[in-house]
C-alpha cells in the first residue's frame, strides 16, 4: 500500500524513524513480527519482546533488532526488564486469545486473570514504564493492537470470548484515556489503537481473509505519522485500514 495514499500521514520518507527506538511486543511471529520489520525498514532501532527466544532471535536478526525475552504474564517483572531503555515507539501487539467456550459464565477466574495479564495489564505496565520518557522528550507513539471483538459497537462485545473481548475493550479505554491525559498529541505523544482485522496468523488461523501485511499496515502507519505539539495528528482513536472507526 502506498504510505501516503490515505489518512493523515503527512510527509514521510523511508527513514522517518531514524534515530528512534521502537519496542514491539509479540515480535516473534504474526502481526508483531511484521510490525517490527516495518518499523525497522522505516529506520527505527527495534527491540522485540516475546517468550520464545529462538523465534524472537531469528525475527530480530532478520531486521537488525534486539531480542528481549520476557513472559508478559509476569506483569510485575516488566518494569525491571525495560528499565533504562529509552523507547520512542511502543507497540503492544502481544496477546492471547481465550478459549472458544469462554462465555462470561463459563470463564474461570484463572482464565480471566491469565488473559487480562497479557492483553491488558502488560500493555499498562509497559506504558507506565516507557511513556513518561516519551512525554519528557516530547516525542512518542503508542499503538495498541486491539480487536473488532473488543469494540462497544458493531461486532464487538456481543457475547462469547469474554476474557479476550473485555480485555481488548479495556485496552481501548486505556488508549483513549491516556491520549487525553497527554493532551491529544500536544505533548508530542500520540496514543492510538488499531483493529487489524481477521488475519492469517497463529491466532487468526490459516483461513482468515486478510494477510499479515494487511493486518500490520495500519499499526506501522500510525507509528510513522507526522505530528507536532502545535499541530497534532488525530489521536486517541481506534483505526482500521488507516481510517477511524467508532469504539
Ligand atoms: N490475527 C488476527 O486475526 C487478529 C485479529 C484481531 C486482533 N488481533 C490482535 O493482533 C495482535 C497480534 O496478533 P497475532 O495474530 O499476530 O497473534 P499470534 O500470531 O498468536 O502472535 C502472538 C504474539 O504474542 C506473543 N505472546 C503471546 N503471549 C505472550 C506472553 N505471555 N509473553 C510475551 N509474548 C507473548 C507471541 O510470542 P511468544 O509465543 O513467543 O511469546 C507472539 O509473538 C494481538 O494483540 C491480537 O489480539 C489479531
UniProtKB/TrEMBL annotation:
State the UniProt keywords alphabetically. Answer: Oxidoreductase
Q: Which residues form the signal peptide?
A: none
Instruction: Give start-end positions of Basic and acidic residues composition bias.
Output: 238-247
Keyword Oxidoreductase attributed: yes
Segments carrying the region annotation (Disordered) are 227-247
InterPro entries, per the entry: NAD(P)-bd_dom_sf, SDR_fam
Question: What is the recorded name of this protein?
Answer: SDR family NAD(P)-dependent oxidoreductase
Amino acid at each position: 500500500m502506498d504510505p501516503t495514499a490515505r489518512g493523515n500521514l503527512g510527509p514521510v520518507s523511508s527513514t522517518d524513524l531514524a534515530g528512534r527506538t521502537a519496542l514491539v511486543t509479540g515480535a516473534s511471529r504474526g502481526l508483531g513480527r511484521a510490525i517490527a520489520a516495518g518499523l525497522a525498514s522505516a529506520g527505527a532501532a527495534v527491540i522485540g519482546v516475546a517468550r520464545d527466544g529462538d523465534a524472537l532471535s531469528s525475527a530480530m536478526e532478520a531486521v537488525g533488532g534486539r531480542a528481549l525475552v520476557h513472559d508478559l504474564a509476569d506483569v510485575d517483572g516488566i518494569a525491571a526488564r525495560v528499565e533504562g531503555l529509552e523507547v520512542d515507539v511502543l507497540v503492544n501487539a502481544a496477546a492471547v486469545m481465550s478459549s472458544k467456550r469462554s462465555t462470561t459464565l463459563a470463564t474461570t477466574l484463572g482464565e480471566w486473570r491469565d488473559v487480562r495479564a497479557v492483553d491488558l495489564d502488560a500493555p499498562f505496565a509497559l506504558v507506565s514504564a516507557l511513556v513518561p520518557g516519551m512525554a519528557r522528550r516530547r516525542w512518542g507513539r503508542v499503538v495498541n493492537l486491539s480487536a473488532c471483538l473488543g469494540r462497544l459497537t458493531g461486532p464487538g462485545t456481543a457475547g462469547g470470548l469474554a476474557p479476550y473481548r473485555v480485555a481488548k475493550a479495556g485496552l481501548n479505554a486505556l488508549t483513549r484515556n491516556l491520549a487525553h491525559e497527554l493532551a491529544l498529541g500536544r505533548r508530542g505523544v500520540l496514543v492510538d489503537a488499531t483493529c487489524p482485522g481477521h488475519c492469517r496468523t497463529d491466532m487468526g488461523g490459516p483461513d482468515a481473509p486478510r494477510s499479515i501485511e494487511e493486518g500490520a499496515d495500519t499499526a506501522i502507519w500510525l507509528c510513522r505519522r507526522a505530528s507536532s505539539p502545535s499541530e497534532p495528528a488525530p489521536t486517541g482513536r481506534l483505526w482500521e485500514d488507516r481510517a477511524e472507526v467508532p469504539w
